[in-house]
Amino acid sequence: MSQGWLIGQSLLNGLTMGGIYALISVGLTLIFGVMKVINFAQGEFLMLGMYITLLMQRMTTFDPYYLVLPVAAGMFVIGMLVYRILIKPIIGRDGTSFIIVTMGLSYVMTTVVQLIFSPNSQSVHSAAAEVTVPIGSFNMAMPRLVACGVMLVAVLLVYFFLKKTDMGRAMRATSENIEVAQMLGIKTNNIFRLAFGLGITMAGITGLLLTPIYFVYPTVGAPFKTIAMACVVLGGLGNIGGTVIGGLLAGICEAFVGSYISFDLAPGSIYLILLIVLLVKPNGLFGKGARKA
């Protein structure tokens, strides 16, 4: 095993895992960019997406990749319902209320799933899980490549939506200045609901893409939640492009530390990189500084 091969393989592993981190992080940054709050239950919605995939596969015997559309639709509906029942009543209050509600929601979701499915790990079968794709002299697991590809498609769709559609432009206007958006006649509550629903959908799709790679269990989303938050801050709060780069950097950092130092230290290395970046650029790699009065 040559040094060059190890570097190349680590880079590929990091980019594909970074694509997974980027996908859940984009959902998180979409919610923050519009609503100016952090969803502390994002990882639990990822977990819910995994369990919905598990249930749908047991009902249909389909490969999880064929279930992307129904899982996405189901997660979008769940996101809209959660917004209507729990989030809408606290809109306009201070950010502490949102933190308390979403942290409480994450605890409730984990507890309910444990009661229904038990804390035991379960698996979702996918034929792609056993397939490796040769890329030059390197090999890459098919599920990781698919996840990275889905991330790219999802980000492009979000970009197109925000730039080319009336609803997307209204979302950008709300993100920039909610008072001005309301003066222009934009129904900001509808924009908040849509942003929250889309953010939850992206978490659910990430969960589906993880089922061929990870076991499904109630607390599986917790580490992805904290990594997603790190990626959002690393790229710059509310910056979708920066969040994608933050996710890719997190994956690459984790892969190289795992290959050259220790797999046990790999997850913690992401937060070390975040700390270093914040010391140099307090607003993240692509974040905007606070405006002066």
From TrEMBL:
One of its GO terms (biological process) is amino acid transport. It is a multi-pass membrane protein. The keyword Nucleus does not apply. GO terms for molecular function: transmembrane transporter activity. Its main location: membrane. One of its GO terms (cellular component) is plasma membrane. It is found in: Cell membrane. InterPro entries: ABC_transp_permease (IPR001851), BCAA_transport_permease (IPR052157). The chain crosses the membrane at residues 20-38, 45-61, 67-86, 98-117, 141-162, 191-215, 227-249, 261-280. Keywords: Amino-acid transport, Cell membrane, Membrane, Transmembrane, Transmembrane helix, Transport. PANTHER family: AMINO ACID ABC TRANSPORTER PERMEASE PROTEIN, BRANCHED-CHAIN AMINO ACID TRANSPORT SYSTEM PERMEASE PROTEIN LIVH. Belongs to the binding-protein-dependent transport system permease family. LivHM subfamily. This is Branched-chain amino acid ABC transporter permease. The lineage of its organism: Bacteria, Bacillati, Bacillota, Clostridia, Candidatus Pullichristensenella.
